[in-house]
Recover the amino acids of this structure.
């Protein structure tokens, strides 16, 4: 009641201010007239009555003022008039305003984007009902080593888990997909009914998958994304009941996912056909992505125990093909599993952007301070006319707030555009589809704007208040305050350098690491080598003989390509195919490893022509021959690194290994050693094991269909080779999807991530260095202006221009040096953050540190030299006359 | 900035205004006259200080104001006591009685009648 009347009275006063002041006037006038009347009635003459009335009233002007004050709108009215005044003065200084708004706006915009991404990716919940109950289920045999589920694991969890309400699996695989148009290679998610039920996804049309669909032999069905339904069938309603052809098998569309759902859990696919699992004959392979939903009220710990019990229960049944007793089925919160180590990338991103924002604030604060110093006289006059210190401070803060408000608006615009860049800068970011600027991001932008508005005004306020205080006491205020102002300005410039250095060092380290990565020998000469990968649909190439015949014919056609020097087949291409699969475990017959500690290596199936096409030399033993067929004794060729790693003092050729933990299979003999080739990325090891393609996967036939690449070295241009191979393949099978790359392209794209990180951090660092340079440039220009007279006197007394330049540059460089030193200390403390992104470069690499410090100082030197030169050109007489 | 003395005066003035308005709605000049009358000319209200006080009391919601025509056909701003204002007056009166009784007791050395 009272609060309401208080606010409504204040609001009335604020919005009806003029009307109200008229009302007060009228009220007071009425009072005086009435008093005069009364006095006359008492017998005074009119003049006397009037004088008496005024006397009794006691100062009309003061009463009016006090009544006005009692309305309680004084601070608000003052603030709006301050703001209006600030707008006017800023409008008169467009250059200053534009610079300050641009610098702050860009920084606020960039940090809002990063905040929006962090909020969407790391902080916000997954877009499923009760997301906290969702888990990803792994096999896990050490704190860091996790792998997928097998059909055995999935069925055991489905039938035995007491803590899970639903469990499902998905298998991502490239297939030949045709909806309405011609077939293309696409990645689809083979899913079980439980996958949809666990996530709690409901379709906009039709249904999702149901348990009967999973039975082997049931009619094949699929769920499709909204976008796919529209693209293939015109609209979502029309899609249900139609069919899509996946690897030559027709699947009936039973449901359409909601608009915008282009990925489920972390898996991105347009089509989700049903995964029908044949009754397993062995424990592996572990290729399925498992998702479960905890029952209500069940803790993660309970689920961990439950699944561990299941692991131990099923272990004996399948022990012949899988001896790793330490591998347990382990549930992990789904969000953590999806986000993974994106936190580290975003942390670096966030750190860089925060540094840039701080530098921008320091920069604009310097500008505000220079402006405030220029207004010192005006403010002193205001003070002498009775403005309080808080009133003066408000005046300065109002100006900063206006700048910050404009910068916040500009920042929001920058952020909405900048958000589109995120997908370009970091296309592998998890949950990229969910990244958006919401209310929280808006709040962040507003808070950043408000905080920077206050921060940029602080130095100016502190200096001006001190100056006004001293100006009222003594005459020599100029000396005192400009000393204080210079100190604050110097501190701001020092801090800009101290903030810029860590960024520059980060960029330098990443660049150094990237250059080293590019110098790594991939083990082959990529010039003139092309790869064409072909996926054979399982339905039409179900038996080995058909597939073998196809590959033989395809190879013959590839060998006939223009300029072909050599051609071969391989299941994996360097330099990084093994990062996404094709790694196998093995054991040395001579030195068996304890269970769970079996080593692994990139593992591929090749024909002998592959080594020639890639240009990899045979170092020992022999290459494969046609005699190494699927029925022959199993043999492998290993890389030199592998041989040195596992048989350091012995000859590797002739040694026996057990492949894939298959104890019942005959041991595999090492028949040759070839040169190193990288399969785990350029930064990875050069271990490699090659099997004859004819023997490859013979122990795991469930794994077909195979994606195999034709590798051809040719003297003709790649486009000619591609089209020859394309035509050859079309003659063999017109429906095959293919992917064409040159090995040079593959090398380039394998370092795309480090290149991108280097570019992003370098971009921030360049901005930071530029701002710091602007800071010291602005400060020294101001110093030159301020000391124009003194410099003029010196020159009149015979000082050399060089010594004037030395004086100015020396002063600026003192700030730069101090800032760089402080920045180095900070950077070295934080360097470990970058370690995970660096290749063969220590975060404290002395060469890089020296280089970036030198670069920063050279930039500072240039920034100081310009005002220095201007100082040297001051004409003594003009300078003296100007004062 | 108000000092301690004006706080005390302000409180007293407000109580007197509330008392004056408890009889009937009236305009500012009338309130001044009525206070002089009620206090038997003991309190002489500085007329000018009435208006800031009225403004404060409007904000506190104790009184409300409206423009009316006087018996002499002049427009004047009339103030009326609100329910909150009446409650406030009762509280003030009770507090005052307790305080004055205590002061009497201190000065005259015996408890005033009706208090503990």
């Amino acid at each position: 009641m009272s609060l309401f009347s208080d606010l409504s009275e204040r609001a009335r006063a604020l919005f009806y201010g003029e009307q109200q002041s008229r009302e007060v006037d009228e009220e007071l006038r009425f009072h005086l007239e009435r008093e005069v009347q009364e006095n006359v009635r008492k017998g005074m003459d009119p003049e006397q009555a009037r004088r008496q009335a005024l006397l009794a009233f006691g100062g009309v002007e003061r009463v009016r003022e006090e009544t006005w004050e009692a309305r309680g709108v004084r601070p608000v009215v003052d603030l709006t008039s301050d703001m209006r005044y600030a707008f006017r003065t800023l409008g008169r200084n467009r250059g200053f305003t534009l610079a300050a708004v641009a610098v702050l706006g860009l920084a606020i915009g960039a940090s809002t984007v990063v905040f929006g991404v962090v909020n969407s990716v790391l902080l916000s919940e997954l877009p499923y009902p009760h997301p906290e109950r969702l888990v990803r289920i792994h096999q896990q045999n050490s704190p860091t080593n996790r792998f997928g589920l097998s059909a055995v694991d999935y069925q055991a969890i489905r039938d035995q888990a007491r803590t899970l309400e639903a469990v499902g699996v998905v298998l991502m695989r490239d297939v030949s997909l045709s909806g309405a148009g011609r077939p293309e290679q696409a990645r689809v998610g083979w899913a079980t009914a439980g996958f949809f039920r666990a996530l709690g996804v409901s379709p906009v049309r039709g249904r999702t998958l149901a348990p009967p669909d999973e039975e082997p032999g049931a009619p094949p069905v699929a769920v499709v994304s909204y976008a796919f339904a529209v693209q293939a069938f015109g609209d979502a309603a029309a899609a249900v009941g139609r069919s899509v052809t996946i690897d030559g098998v027709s699947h009936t569309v039973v449901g359409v996912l909601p608009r915008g759902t282009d990925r489920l859990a972390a898996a991105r696919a347009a089509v989700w056909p049903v995964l029908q699992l044949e009754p397993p004959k062995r424990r592996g392979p572990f290729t399925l992505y498992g998702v479960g939903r905890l029952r209500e009220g069940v803790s993660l710990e309970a689920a961990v125990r439950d699944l561990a019990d299941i692991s131990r229960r099923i272990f004996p049944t399948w022990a012949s093909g899988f001896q790793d007793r330490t591998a347990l089925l382990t549930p992990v919160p789904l969000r953590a599993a999806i986000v993974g180590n994106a936190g580290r990338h975003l942390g670096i991103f966030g750190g860089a952007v925060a540094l840039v924002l701080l530098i921008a604030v320091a920069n604009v604060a310097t500008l505000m301070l220079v402006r405030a110093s220029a207004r010192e006289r005006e403010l002193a006059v205001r003070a002498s006319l009775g403005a309080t210190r808080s009133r003066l401070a408000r005046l300065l803060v109002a100006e900063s707030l206006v700048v910050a408000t404009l910068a916040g608006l500009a920042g929001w615009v920058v952020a909405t555009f900048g958000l589109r860049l995120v997908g370009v800068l970091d296309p592998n970011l998890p949950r990229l589809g969910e990244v958006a600027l919401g209310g929280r991001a808006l709040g962040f932008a507003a808070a950043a704007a408000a905080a920077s508005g206050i921060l940029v005004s602080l130095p100016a306020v502190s200096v001006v208040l001190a100056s006004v205080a001293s100006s009222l006491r003594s005459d020599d205020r100029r000396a005192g305050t400009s000393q204080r102002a210079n100190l604050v300005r110097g501190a701001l410039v020092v801090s800009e350098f101290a903030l810029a250095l860590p960024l520059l060092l980060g960029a330098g380290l990443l660049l150094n690491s990237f250059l080293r990565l590019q110098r790594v020998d991939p083990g082959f000469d990529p010039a003139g080598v092309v790869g064409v990968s072909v996926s054979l649909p399982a339905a039409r190439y179900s038996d080995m003989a058909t597939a073998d015949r196809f590959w033989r014919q395809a190879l013959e056609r590839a060998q006939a390509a223009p300029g072909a020097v050599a051609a071969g087949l391989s299941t994996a291409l360097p330099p990084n195919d093994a990062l996404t699969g094709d790694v196998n475990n093995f054991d040395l017959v001579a030195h068996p490893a304890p269970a769970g500690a079996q080593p692994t290596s990139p593992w591929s199936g090749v024909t002998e022509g592959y080594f020639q096409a890639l240009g990899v030399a045979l170092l020992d033993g022999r290459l494969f021959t046609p005699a190494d067929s699927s029925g022959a004794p199993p043999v492998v060729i290993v890389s030199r690194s592998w041989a040195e790693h596992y048989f350091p003092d012995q000859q590797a050729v002739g040694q026996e290994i057990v492949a894939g933990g298959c104890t019942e299979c005959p041991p595999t003999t090492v028949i040759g050693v070839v040169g190193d080739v990288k399969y785990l990325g350029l930064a990875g090891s050069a271990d490699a094991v090659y099997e004859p393609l004819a023997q490859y996967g013979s122990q795991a036939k469930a794994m077909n269909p195979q994606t195999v690449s034709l590798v051809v070295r040719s003297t003709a241009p790649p486009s000619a080779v591609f089209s020859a191979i394309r035509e050859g393949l079309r003659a063999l099978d017109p429906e095959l999807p293919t992917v064409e790359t040159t090995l040079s392209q593959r090398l380039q794209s394998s370092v795309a991530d480090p290149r991108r990180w280097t570019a992003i951090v370098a971009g921030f660092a360049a901005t930071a260095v530029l701002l710091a340079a602007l800071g010291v440039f602005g400060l020294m220009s101001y110093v030159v202006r301020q000391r124009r007279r003194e410099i003029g006197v010196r020159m009149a007394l015979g000082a050399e221009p060089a010594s004037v330049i030395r004086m100015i540059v020396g002063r600026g460089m003192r700030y730069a040096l101090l800032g760089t030193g402080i920045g180095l200390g900070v950077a070295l403390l934080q360097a470990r953050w970058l370690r995970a992104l660096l290749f063969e470069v220590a975060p404290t690499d002395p060469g890089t540190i020296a280089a970036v410090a030198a670069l920063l100082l050279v930039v500072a030197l240039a920034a100081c030299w310009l005002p220095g030169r201007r100082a040297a050109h001051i004409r003594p007489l003009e300078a003296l006359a100007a004062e | 900035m108000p000092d301690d003395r004006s706080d005390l005066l302000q409180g007293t003035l407000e109580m007197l205004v509330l008392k004056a308005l408890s009889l009937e709605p009236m305009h500012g000049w009338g309130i001044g006259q009525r206070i002089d009358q009620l206090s038997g000319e003991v309190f002489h209200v500085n007329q000018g200080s009435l208006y800031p006080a009225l403004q404060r009391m409007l904000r506190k919601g104790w009184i409300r104001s409206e423009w009316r025509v006087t018996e002499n056909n002049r427009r004047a701003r009339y103030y009326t006591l609100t329910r909150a204002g009446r409650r406030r007056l009762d509280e003030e009166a009770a507090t005052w009685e307790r305080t004055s009784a205590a002061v009497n007791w201190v000065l005259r050395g015996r408890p005033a009648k009706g208090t503990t």
